[in-house]
Amino acid sequence: xxxxxxxxxxxxxxxxxxxxxxxxxxxxxxxxxxxxxxxxxxxxxxxxxxxxxxxxxxxxxxxxxxxxxxxxxxxxxxxxxxxxxxxxxxxxxxxxxxxxxxxxxxxxxxxxxxxxxxxxxxxxxxxxxxxx
Length: 132
What we know:
Number of helices: 5
Strand order of the largest sheet: 1-2
Shape: elongated
Radius of gyration: 18 Å
Helix content: 55-70%
Number of strands: 2
Structural class: mainly alpha
Low-confidence stretches: none
């Protein structure tokens, strides 16, 4: 990550894009294991961590909240893999992956990732305009 206040939003968007990429890998793994007996679906937690980090009542503006997410605090924003509905299975073989749900989540995640990349590109475009 780049350590400058100018790049605060870019750093947060970068973390979100990384989390989205990891979620894509987890979903692909779930799809690959749809017929594996006993397999439990995996997912990524990131959005809730970001909400908690930005919910700090000590800051009035979003700029202040994002600025507070410096290198030290942003380590809490690491995406984490977890087993979703570990004790739940609606199939006799113990697998809890639903292919239709996974395909829908994959499409949704790809749209989110593309939006994050577009936002990062726009931030750099804004920086280039300011530097001219």
